[in-house]
Every structure is written in C-alpha cells, then in structure tokens.
Design brief:
about 150 residues; mainly alpha; Arc Repressor Mutant, subunit A; three-stranded antiparallel beta sheet; about 70% helix; about 10% strand; WH_DNA-bd_sf
Length: about 150
C-alpha cells in the first residue's frame, strides 16, 4: 500500500508540475491559461463546439463562452451551424490561425523536444498507460466523489 501511495503521489506531483508549466507558459506568452488551452484545441484545424471544448478539457462552459465571444469580436474565430444540432462549431479565422501559430510555436517546440527525449528513454506506450489511468481515475471520481457516495478506500 505504501508503494502504491508513493507512486500516486509521484504521479500527482508530476501532473501538477505539468499543469503549472502550462499556466506559467501561458502567462509568459501573454494569454490566460484557459485561453491557451482553447487556442491549443482550435489550432488542430478541426471545428469544435464550445460544449466539446468544455467537456474534453474540463474548462467551465462560461469561461469557454466568454473567451470565444471575445475572440469573435476580435475576428479570431467564426461560429458555424453544426448539422443536425443547435450547437455551433468554432474555428479559427486566418487571423486567428496566425495568432495561434505565433503563440503556440514555442510551446509546440518545447513539447516536441520533451516528447522526443522521453520516447528515447521510454516507450511511447507511457501515453497509453496514462490515458488508461486517467479513464480509470475519472470512473472512480464519478463513482466515489461526484456521485456523492463519498466511499473512501480501506
């Protein structure tokens, strides 16, 4: 049990450091951390609904909406009706893509270099393992914390 607790703590510390790096990076790049996350999502070249962004990245809907509204006024994004849905998809305009690339280029470079170094030392399988842990942790949180049952491990 102590080994498992220690492993969880090491993972949690590492994940918090990663979150902190993105937070501090956003600040240094002149954007809020939530805005950086949304820019990151939208710069993949696909259209996303505000709900998808909120659900996948765990950013409050009101925060996503506020940022998208501001970017729409600035001409950085456009909203388009989604087929068979009331949702509208958000995509970057040319101006938005240029701004996204300018902001995200150093971040992408840092991520790519860090990933290359990590994969040289370890298998790319670590990503799959982390995704599995995330899914299992989400299930446990939903069952034990979000549902209100409050069961704690023995």
């Amino acid at each position: 049990m102590d080994d498992l607790r220690e492993a969880i703590e090491r993972l949690t510390v590492s994940l918090n450091k990663i979150d902190g790096l993105y937070y501090m990076g956003a600040k240094k790049l002149g954007v809020k951390d939530s805005a950086l996350s949304i820019l990151y999502v939208l710069n993949d070249g696909k259209s996303h609904s505000q709900k998808q962004i909120s659900d996948e990245w765990l950013i409050p809907k009101t925060t996503v909406n506020t940022i998208i509204r501001e970017w729409r006024r600035e001409g950085l994004v456009v909203l388009s009706p989604e087929e068979h849905s009331r949702e509208k998809t958000v995509s970057l305009t040319e101006k938005g893509r240029e701004q996204a690339e300018a902001i995200l280029a150093p971040l992408y470079h840092a991520e790519q270099t860090a990933m290359e170094k990590t994969i040289r030392e370890f298998s790319p399988e670590f990503i799959t393992v982390l995704e599995h842990f995330c899914r299992h942790l989400q299930q446990e949180f939903e069952q034990r914390i979000f549902s209100g049952s409050g069961d704690s491990p023995q």
